[in-house]
Design goal:
With 279 residues, the chain is mainly α. It has a domain of 106 residues: Endonuclease Iii, domain 2. 49% of the residues lie in helices and 0% in strands. It is built from 12 helices and no strands.
Length: 279
């Protein structure tokens, strides 16, 4: 199967995924079919960073919990890492995500006496990317997603894990740069399909085809019939803990009785990258 035909099949899978996903989420679809994304830049960054490492369902659940369980992002900032973890449901990678969120908010407050990224709205695309690079654990696709969503920049944002999936399928080669691939893919699609395919690939990279070959679950993949990697290797089912284990019960509204002391704020701009946990 040619790469173009594979891409069209991938879009069909993404459309099917969107029909299953949208009824359960808090990001409503508009009449035109586009997702009604959060309007604030900080909300977009946090939601997408959750989605980079969690399935679509768990990312939406975690984002919704943060918005419902806390008054605002400043309350999240002054809460403990444990409290943020509990709001996320103690889901996979909740510790790393909680540290990222808290450090991001602490740095913004320390520098600007506010927890907002709205000042980036007036910046150029280059300035936005440059500023977000300061947060070393922020996935590069999150910055491109923000720009794509708010500025309608004509690219399909790609993360490393998404590129791995597309390489295994034989849709992308290994020689082209990520910016070129992002532009080429967007130009090959109906513009309304770009972000839907983006979310589908993120989800697929988490649940079925992660970068670590030992974690791949080819037998459960709907794309294996056209996958170059599967044709070569025929991977066995994944032998790890249950995927996306059901989150533990959320914490009660009275956090004071069991919340540990808040950890000392750290400068996210100076952190070493967070260690990725194999799924």
């Amino acid at each position: 199967m040619k790469a173009h035909d594979k891409l069209q099949t991938l879009v069909e899978e993404a459309v099917s995924f969107g029909k299953q996903w949208s009824p359960r989420n808090s990001l409503r679809k508009t009449e035109g079919g586009e997702r009604d994304y959060p309007q604030k830049l900080l909300d977009l960054v946090i939601f997408h960073q959750l989605h980079v490492v969690l399935s679509a369902e768990h990312a939406l659940r975690g984002y919704r919990a943060l918005k419902e369980d806390f008054v605002d992002w400043n309350e999240v900032r002054v809460s403990s890492i444990r409290e943020i973890q509990e709001a996320l449901g103690l889901c996979p990678n909740s510790l790393e995500l909680s540290v990222f969120i808290k450090d991001l908010l602490e740095l913004l407050h320390r520098e600007r006496q506010d927890v907002s990224l709205e000042f980036l709205a007036e910046k150029s695309l280059g300035e936005i990317r440059q500023y977000l690079k300061r947060f070393r654990t922020l996935d590069t696709s999150t910055a491109e997603f923000l720009i794509r969503t708010r500025r309608e920049h004509p690219v399909l944002p790609l993360s490393h894990s998404m590129e791995v999936v597309l390489n295994r399928l034989g849709i992308l080669g290994k020689g082209d740069s990520r910016p070129k691939n992002e532009k080429t893919l967007h130009e090959s699609l109906d513009p309304s399909q770009s972000l839907l395919l983006h979310h589908y690939l993120l989800n697929h990279a988490v649940e079925v085809c992660p970068p670590d070959e030992n974690e791949i679950d080819c037998p459960s993949c709907n794309l294996r019939h056209m996958c170059a990697f599967y044709a070569r290797s025929g991977k066995k089912p994944r032998r790890i803990q249950e995927k996306n284990a059901r989150p533990a019960a959320r914490h009660s509204k009275d956090r004071s009785a069991k919340a540990p002391r808040a950890s000392k704020p750290r400068d996210i701009a100076k952190h070493k990258p967070l260690r990725k946990i194999s799924r």
